[in-house]
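so my prof wants the structure for this chain in the tokens format not the other one, which i didnt know existed until like an hour ago. anyway here's the sequence
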Amino acid sequence: MSTHHIVTLPGDGIGPEIMAPALEVLRAVGEFEFEEHVFGGAAIDAHGAALTDETLAACRAADAVLLAAVGGPKWDTTDPHAPRPEQGLLGLRKGLGLYANLRPVRPLPALYEASPLRRERIEGTDLLVVRELTGGIYFGEKVRTETMASDVCTYTVVEIERIARTAFRAARAKVSSVDKANVLETSRLWREVVSGVHSREFPHIQLEHVLVDNAAMQLVSSPRHFDVILSENMFGDILSDEAAMITGSIGMLPSASLGDADSAGSAAGGSAAGGRVPGLFEPVHGSAPDIAGGGIANPLAMFLSAALMLRHGLGLASEAAAVESAVDRALQEGLRTPDLGGSAGTEQATRSVLGHL
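here's what i got, hopefully its the right format
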């Protein structure tokens, strides 16, 4: 197997605590070269910016980027001119042209009882949230005065078309496109463009349009209804965190952020090197500063994010399946971290998973 070059971004809080065991898991299934960079709050402390030019250049040159977590109360501020850890994440997504965020939600039978929802409500759920990642209100013009503030939400036809294609290609049978077309003009454009892509390119896939408030309700009342949920940036951010709780803990949900050579070249002001775009892989949970240093962080979402990296970023499907199987079997044999109602710490969880590889 050739050696793959991976940039690692441990970040803040529990980030370094879950990154180290993830690299152990990766070394157990292949040959990899790791290059670590400070990122988020740690980079603000070291360099005054959450994402440095050096780190962005290293990420562009890598085969894949593995991120743990960023943020914490130390860097919380309402000052619009102060750097924030989350700016590094937004800048990395934009700088790499990563417009498609994939968040699979598949509760494991071993964890059905850990979910706040009843077993019969979540049993058989297997859905994918496809979130547009580089447009919308998070990236729109921002204005702040003493008496008002505004955030502009903007979407182009091209941005909607490319994320819609991602969703339709991922679907087995149905795409549920989420919007707020009864109120927002951007959502009306979203609905029109998604419908056009569907009719022209993917008529064999069922398409339904769901208002975001209804989608939030159905995720709780009947999550099996969904196959692929397609959403703009902010709606997808909220819905995917809600969907995470179906699995029993947000500490169980991985994610992949992907792009293509065209989008990366545009974001970089030129062409993507070699026509290849490194993906960004990270757990959905945050930096959990309240438990940082305690040795009790759940590393499983980090392991599953590494598996997504193996599959979608490096083309190593069998190695990805091995990691996912090891996590499943560890849970089946009773592994429970504190967020899942047990007492296993980070080290014990790591040994349990490695024992099945």
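also thought this was worth mentioning. Residues 262-274 have pLDDT under 50 and may be disordered.
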